[in-house]
Amino acid sequence: MAEGPRLIVVEPNGERRNVVIATFPFRIGRQAGNELTLRDSRVSRHQAQILKQDGKLVLEDTGSSHGTFVNGDRINRYELKPSDRIDF
To answer: Which pTM was predicted?
Structure first.
């Protein structure tokens, strides 16, 4: 069975966990109710979302306070590729 898209989340304490991206939009933020809730005060309540467009995954910043970064570059919208590193 093929594995779907996923994120490897690295917590501030170094703990890693796999998160499957199963629904779209896949919302990421500090507030409960997001598909991925990050308990970190540096993350906005509604930080970013991952959309599926034309079979590709697109990461969008949703007006966060401190920005969304992929591979060290601040983005507003970015087509994700395997092994990209996302930071908030």
So the answer is: 0.92
